[in-house]
Amino acid sequence: MLARTGDARPVRERQVPAVERAIAILRLLGRSDAPLGVNAIARELGIVPSTCLHILRVLVAQELASFDPETKRYRIDAGILSIARGVLRRNSLSQIVQPGLDRVAKRYGITTNAVRVVGLDHGTVVAISQAGQALHIHVDIGSRFPALISATGRCIAAFGQHDWAEIERRFATLRWDRPPSFRAWCAQVEETRRKGYGVDAGHYISGVTIIGAPMMKASRVSHVIVGVGLTEQLKPSTLAALGKDLIAVANETSQRLRDD
Fold this sequence. Notes:
Blueprint: E1 2-4, E2 10-12, H1 17-31, E3 36-37, H2 38-45, H3 49-61, E4 65-68, E5 73-76, H4 79-90, H5 92-108, E6 111-118, E7 122-130, E8 144-146, H6 150-159, H7 164-171, H8 182-195, E9 198-201, E10 208-217, E11 220-230, H9 236-259
Helix pairs in contact: 1-3, 2-3, 5-9, 6-8
């Protein structure tokens, strides 16, 4: 892979396998509901078990992972929180967007979140608000998912100025509960462009409607402000009002970030 420095000379980026494997292990432990043994981790990530064990020992020594000598299994540890706190403390967007997320979540009785977009690779939840209802959609800060999935993906495709051949290639790899055809999805992308917000009505997760409005930085989508609720509570008339409110939060947040 080639990158360019300020003087425009091509510089080859060097891969660091040990770092990449350590990050992959942390991500796996972070999304696992139960502790995992070294062989299960190595098998899932395609790492040689002895290499996996060496990396795990370093992660345990740095308190990023913990080891239970009785079960011989590993899990994510509290050391990762100090890193996360530093990120959140310096992430002004998370602080700026929170009042808007709280306002919309309370108004509609839904879960709202802000998703940071990394090109066509993935989205990461960086802020969240829940309405406090007895039944709500649970999302965690740090959750990652493919960029083109759900309402977020429609926003990225509609406003991100990406190559459509690449979009179609990545679309074919997505996993949905009720997969839309690429043709139908493209029509929904065009509707997103017209309305300024995208809607996924039960395609990504059955019975759940997800709606998103983009935040732009230059000619790319930097974040998407998202509302998540049960389909039965988000009727068409409600969706229109919610879409406008999410656009307002996206615009307010973008303006505040420019002012700062």
